[in-house]
Structure formats: C-alpha cells, structure tokens
Amino acid sequence: MGAGQPGDRERPINMTDRTITDPKGDDPKTADSTRFLSHLELDQPDKTFLDSNELVINMGPQHPATHGVLRVILKLDGEQVLGTECVIGYLHRGVEKIAEHRTYTMFNPYVDRMDYVAAVSNGLGYCEAVEKLLNIEAPPRARYIRVILTELNRLASHQLWLGTHALDIGAMTPLFYTFRDREEILKIFEKYCGARLTTHAFRIGGCQYETYEGFERDVIKFLDFVPPKIDEYEELLTTNRIWLERTKGVGVISKADAIALGVTGPVLRASGVKWDLRKAQPYAAYSDFDFEVPIGANGDTYDRYSVRMEEMRQSLRIIRQAVEKIPEGPIMAKVPKVMKPPVGEVYHSIEAPKGELGYFIVSDGSTQPYRVRVRPPSFVNLQALDNMVRGALVADVIAVIGTLDIVLGEVDR
Amino acid sequence: MLNYITSYLSSNTTPGQAGNVFWALIYILVVFGGISVAVMAMNWLERKALAHFQIRLGPMRVGPHGLLQPIADAIKLMTKEDIIPAEADKFVFWIAPLIILCASFAVYIVVPFGPTHAITDLNIGILFMLGVSSLSVLGIVMAGWASNSHYPLIGALRSSAQMVSYEVAMGMAVVSAILMTSLHGLGAYGVGAGTSGTGTLSMIGIVQAQQEQHVWFLFKFFPLGFIAFGIFAIAMVAETNRAPFDLPEAESELTAGFHTEYSGLRWSLFMLGEYAAMIAVSSIAVTLWLGGWYRPFPNTLTGETWDLVFSLFPGLTFLALAAIAFVGVRRMPKHPYFRVQTLGLAGFGVVLGVIGLILFVPPVRDRIQDIFWFVAKVAGFMYLYIWYRATFPRYRFDQLMKVGWKVLLPIGIGVLILTAVLGVVL
Amino acid sequence: MPEEPKSPTLPPSGEPKSTAGHAPAVPAKPAGPVPIPWDSAMVGKLKGQYGSGIREANTYLGQNYMVVEPSIVSELLQILRDREQFDYCVDVTAVHYPQREKQFDLIWILYSFPRNERIRVKTMIADGERVPSAVPIWATANWLEREVFDMFGIRFDGHPDLKRILLPDGWKGHPLRKDYGIIQQDQEWVQANLGIESGQ
Known about the structure:
The complex is a heterotrimer of chains A (413), B (426) and C (200).
Chain A: E1 54-59, E2 71-77, E3 80-87, H1 95-99, H2 104-112, H3 119-134, H4 140-169, H5 173-193, E4 202-203, E5 206-207, H6 215-237, H7 241-247, H8 255-261, H9 266-270, H10 277-280, H11 301-325, E6 344-352, E7 355-363, E8 371-375, H12 377-383, H13 385-389, H14 394-404, H15 408-412
Antiparallel strand pairs in A: 1-2, 2-3, 4-5, 6-7, 7-8
Helix pairs in contact in A: 2-3, 3-4, 4-5, 4-11, 4-14, 5-6, 6-11
Chain B: H1 2-10, H2 15-18, H3 21-53, H4 69-78, H5 90-106, H6 125-146, H7 150-182, H8 203-212, H9 224-239, H10 265-289, H11 304-311, H12 313-331, H13 339-358, H14 362-391, H15 397-425
Helix pairs in contact in B: 3-10, 3-14, 5-6, 5-10, 6-7, 7-9, 7-15, 8-10, 9-10, 9-15, 10-14, 12-13
Chain C: E1 36-37, H1 41-50, E2 54-60, E3 63-68, H2 73-82, E4 88-96, E5 104-112, E6 117-125, E7 131-132, H3 141-152, E8 156-157, H4 187-194
Parallel strand pairs in C: 3-6, 7-8
Antiparallel strand pairs in C: 1-2, 2-3, 4-5, 5-6
C-alpha cells in the first residue's frame, strides 16, 4: 500500500490525479499537506489507511463526472461523506481583469465563454447591463429576438444538463437523445449568427443581425418537434424505479439553507421558493409573456429534475408566444460608436438557466469599463455542495454535482 | 482405436457418461470454441445494439458493419503493454484473471445443448454450476488485492459482496426449480396425472423432467415458476456485475473497479470471463425454466407437422441472416474504397446462406434442432442484458444490497415454501 | 428616457462660422443621469440610528445604494438581514481606486425576497484595513469573500477559512488591483510548479 497514510502525502494515490498544476510545495510557510483540509478537521492523520475509519479521497480535476475541471476532496467514513472541499480555479482566465482593458463592445464576446453552454444568456445579461449604464433601451423587436434566442438557449442548456446528469447516474441513453435534439437549436443559432456555442448573438443596444429568412418557420417547426422528445426523456426517467431511488431524497437542501447560501435558479425553486427574475424583475420583454414558474416541494434531486423539465416546457411556451407576436421595427437602438457611459455603477441580473447571473459594471467615463464583476450562479450554487452531501454516500456526490448544473467556465471565469 | 471412436457414435449418452475420452475432448474443444466465438459475437452485438439504442451506428469501419471489430479489439488488447503496478503481488496479480476465466469456463462441461449434446452430465449438475461459478468471487478479490491500490480494493470488495448476496437469492430460485422436478401435483396445473418425477440435480435431467411433466417450469404452479424465474433473472444480472448493478465497475464512480490496474491481455481475460459467466447463468435460466433445448410450444402445438415446421427454423434463421447481409450489401456505398467491405459482407452472407441450406438437410436438421433452440434462448437473454444496460440507470451500492437481501431473498424464500406446499398438497 | 450623448458640438450646417454677431447655436448636451437622494422609510430609520455613519443614500439609474462607514458595516448588515428582511446576499465585491486615500470600495449587493427589492451597501476602506466578515449573517458570503481576498487582498475578520479560491495557494499578488499588470504572473510560482519559463 505504499506509505498509506491519508494525511501525509501531498496527493492521495489516484490514477486520475496527474495534474501538473498541483503545487509541490507552494508557500513554504503553509506547506503542510493538510492545507486543503483545514475546515474538514482531519483529526488523526497519522493512523494507517486500514486502521482509520476516515478516508480522504480526491475526485481529481480530470474526472468523467465533474463537468469540467473541478476538484472535490471528500472526507469519508467508509462510504458516508463527512465533509467536502471544492478546489476550483483550474479554468480561471481572468475575465474580470481583461474587461478593464477592453472597450465595452470588445468585451462582449468574452462573456460568452464563461458559461459556454448558455452563451446567449450571458450575452443578454451583459448587453442589458451596459444598456442600463448608457440609459438606453433596445427596441421592441430586438427585445423579442433576444427573448426567443435566450429561451432556446435555456432549453439547450437544460437538455445538456439532463443528458450529463443521467449519464452520471448511469443511464447512458438520454445523453444521446438530448444531444440530438439540441442539435436543432444549435442549427438555428448557426443560421442566425454563425456560431453554435459561443454565439455573441447580441450587441449593446439591440441585435446586430436581422432574423434570417425562414427564422420564424424554423422556430415553429422546432416547437412542434421538441415536445414529444421531452416526453421521451420523461418516459425513460421520471417513473423509472431506479431513477427515483437514486434521486429522491438525495442532496436535499432546505428552503432556509438555500436562501442563506444564496443559491438561485432551479435549485432554489426546487426547495420551494417561487422566485424567478423573469417574473420578479422582468427584463427584455418577459413581461409581455404568459408563463409559469415551476417549484418543487422537497428540495431533493428529483425535484430539481422535475423543475427543469417543466422549465423546458415553459420555455417552449414563451418562444411560441414570442414568435407569434414579434413586432416589426428596428433592431438596434441609437448607440454612439464610441461608447462612453457616464461615471457610475450599475448591477443588472438576469435569470440564466443556472441561476441569477449578475453583472456589476463600474464606469469611469472612459471607453473601457473600470470594473466588471460577474456574479456567477454556478459559483454560488457550488458552495452549497458541502451542505447537500453531508451524510450522503459517495455515489450521491456525483449525482448532486450533476444536479447543481455547474459549468466550470462560469465558476472560475 | 477406430472402434473406440465409432462405438461412441451409436451410444446415446454424453461422452462423459460413456467414459469416452476422445469424444469428450472433441466436445470440449467444440464447446469452448463455440463459447469463445459467442463471446466475440456478444462483444460486437453489445456495441452495435447499444449504439442503435443511442441513435448512432456503432462500429462500421472495421469490416463491413463492424463485424471484424472484435478481432481488432482482441489484437489490440494482445499487443498492449503489460503494466504491473509496482509493489503488486505478482503471482496473485497473474493468477486472478486465470481463476475467473477457469471458473467461468469450467461450468460449461455440464451445460446441456441437447439430450446427449453435453460434455458430460453430472448427477449434481446444477450444484456444480452454481458452486464453480462462485469461485470467480475469489478471483475478483485477488485481483483487487493484488493491485496494491485502494480503489481497486474497494471496488473488488464491493463486487464480491454484491455477488455473494445475489447468489443467495439465486440459490432460492434454483432450489424451487429443482423442487419442481420432483413435485408433480397430481392433475392440477395441466400436468399429466400419473407422472412420477424423480427429483434430479442433473441439468439434462431437469430438462427431461420438464418434458415428462409436459410443462416448462416457467409456467408450472403459475405464478410461482414465473416469480422464481424473475428472481433468477434479476439475480443473474447482479451476479455478473452488469447494468443496472454495475456500480463497482462504472467509470463515473470513484472506485473504478477491480480491473483498473489490468491492461491489455489480462484485462481481456476479465472481459472474457465476464461474458462467459453471462452466457453460463443464462444457460442455467434457460435449462431450469425455459425448457432447455425444447422447441417453443412443445405441448400446445404437438404433432408431426408442427415438429417439421419448427425444425425448419434453424435453416430459416440463417437464411434470414443471409438475406439481411445481402440487403446490407445492396446498401453499401458504391465507392471503390468500400469494395473490399462489400465483398466481405457478400461473402459472409454467402456463408450464412450455405449454412442455412445445410440446415435444411434432414439428418442435420434433427441433430441440430436442440442446439439451435438452446442457443436461441440464450441469445435472447444476451440481448436482454444489452437492453438493460442501455435503459436503466445504475443502482447505488446500498440500494443494490437492499434489493438483494430485503427484496429478492424474502420473495425467493416465499416462492420456495409455496412451491413445496403446493407440490405436496396438490 | 434615452440619452443620446453627442459628439463635440458643431454649429448647425449651413451657418457660416464667421458671421459676426450671430453666435452659432450650440445644442445643449442633455443632462445625463445623476444620483438622486433615496428617501424611504428604511433609509430614514437607518439614518436616525446611525446618523453620520450613513454617508449617503442615493438612487442612480433606478438602483438604490448606500455608502456607509466601515465601522458600522457589520451591524448594519445584521440589521438589514434581521429587521429589513434582506435575506439573500447576492454578491460581495470590491473595486480598487489607487488614487484615493481609501483605496477600496467594498460592495455588498443584497436582495429581499419578501420586498422584491435590491440594494447595494458600499463602504470605503484603506489598504490593509480589515472588515468583519459577513459569513455569520449570510452563509453565501463564504466563497464570495474568499474571492475578494484572492483578487484584492482585503482580509475579513471572522471568516472561517480565508484562503485563495481561484488562484493557486502560493500565488503572490492580487490580480484585480490596478497595480497588477494585465499580463503579469507570479513568475516564481509558475516556474516552480509548472516547470516552464512563463510563456508571456
């Protein structure tokens, strides 16, 4: 077993733990290897592996089920989880620092890359925040186009979430079904703005591209194509006994905990808080549409699953209403070529598929923002992981990471 | 010498019972060769069927429609670097896959493909099968231990715990089937009065008991036979560590299973053992409940004509496969790069067709019938295995153990008691 | 009301510049948005309680914010959560103004579910000054404050586990400060741990 003591090696033995960014002894003052475990209170680190009943396991940065480069250090008692610690930052690209050295328009493509699964939402939030700072409003047609694309993106994001979550729990088939259906959405995006994933769809002041010839027809065809597919996913999973056993009662977070921990999005709604920024503080034409906000009762994984499935259906409802009522008119407001917002700060947030995505922009009157702060929903939701898996089993950790729907690009920015 | 060889041909028993070493060896070679081919075919079918469940095509390039993929995989695995972890126990590391392989293959000496088509017929056949296949647990634990790493060890311990628990449930189901061989239930349940089944553990004897009682044990004492079969069908999936009970070896879980540290040929031996075990337990299920080698509907559709009709099935199956191969040939792209593949597929179709035609010849037909129906039923089970894997999520380990001990075992005991009671009372 | 900032004003075309006695009409730049005082019952109560502790309470572009003294911040946040029902801490962030004496602007963005209201609480602190942590008030502040520490170097008293979150543990420097270059890296750490000369 080697020198099999859990506390004394810097990296626990793990075939997947081969990252070169793992510091070999970074700060000499704090080079003891339990630095990651400070709050886990590893009490008896010098017991050998087979004697101690506490085991520290590393779900390394490369792992099929961590949705990106996320490292989770688990402290286990046999099979039960006593505590977790997330080590993030493997995908940190310094987006907020870059923003200070780019003009407002130049920064627009960067925001897509944060939550790369739902790039359109990111763009929407940023453009709306800057528009707020400039005190201008996008014209109605642009707002409707924004709503349609954002809701399509919400659907695509939830489909990806469903596929990967089901795969983590063991059902490999829904992944392929959801990705096939997601292709239709990506085709619409490609026809609209040329890109499937990091779309850069919106501009400050509206949309740059007019909807292409046949956009409405494509969207309506898609709206007819997708509901039976969602039924298909439900058929595979919702009443499946194994799925129910793996998700009911797993990763429960109470309403009070959810609010205290600041989780937002479907995670919060599954715990019983009926709050959706599209209804509470409407932005971009959402007040014109009639849709419902699904909530769950128990705050467990199954409820989060049901909430997201229902959200998919409500998104279809919104898109249908938007496509039918889309007004004519200009798609871009009068925006100066050189954008110099007046000195001030603004915080604007939207309901991204993952939660409340907020942009806090400080302007100093020049063409480049003084500070852009992105409030990432996945970052704050991931914090709740520890709360949700205490006392659960190891296999549940993976289910819970999947159900939180995190994208590491957004967590790390 | 020639006498020795030919004298067996006129006898009506298995070579083991006749004591004929030569023919026993022939049969062993045929059976083991057949199992190896079956494992390769199963590998191909798994990849293709799983792919089609997932709306994709699966292997298409290596050979027409991926038919040569298992051979390519075998060559790849054999030529891979053989890595042994440092500080691993080398002898145990080497012998663990061999134990699993031997345990999985040794049970085939009693698997009955026909009334005399078995290598031998031990009078404790079913006991032998269950006992020897349990030895693979030893191999798993050895593999996990010898890897000198705590993840394989945890995975191995979990696998072995799972296999042992489900063996108990399997045992209950098997015993209730064995009971049915001797309990005949005078007149009730459509069983012919006056039959006196003598209880037997021999595999061939069990199938013959189903024949004598004119009922497959699946339908005997309905629904008890059905429930016992159901318990066995679930337990056998758990026994072979297949989905949905494959947590110990799933990739997205933390512990990657007992075969993590094995690479190349050693790993392929594990896979060979796993598929062989799957076929073995399916054979048990077929023998005990599904009437072994008997054609479907032996009791409701009786008579010479029906016998003739069903005896045409093997030939027709192969001709149908040949037809599918030719359809595939028609649909191949008409590009020079595909010429070899097209020819290969056409050749394969021709071979299948020739086999099909041979199977229409009456002497061959009679001898081959039993084997064909047995293999067809086992093939059905294999397809079910793949279907389960595509459809179901995975059970968590504690839920898995709960199902084994708290659900299947009580039901198994209940079925056993009720079978015994009904058999005596009725 | 849409604002249309104009480029440097030109005389309307057609009018000769050198016409004497005729000053070219310069279109006046419309007034941009300015912070207007924020009066509400809550602000009134707080001002009554803290007096000069609340330096300003304004509304800019429809968003309410308060600038407060660092000494009263933790009490104020507690009151905001308990009495004023701001139960959800949306964000904790900072801005660096190196020219100012109090270099950092520390900002809490709070939201109240019952009132559907969002406010910002701002305070200004000097470099090296420590602020009480908001973790006892909202659990969500844990990682948010760690990120502020990581990026700016502001320490929070009472934080259970204040260490870097996005950057590796041994990194020197706080990147979002204005004196940290855009392509600057901790060369020592990179060379020691990645074994490469930095690619910059």
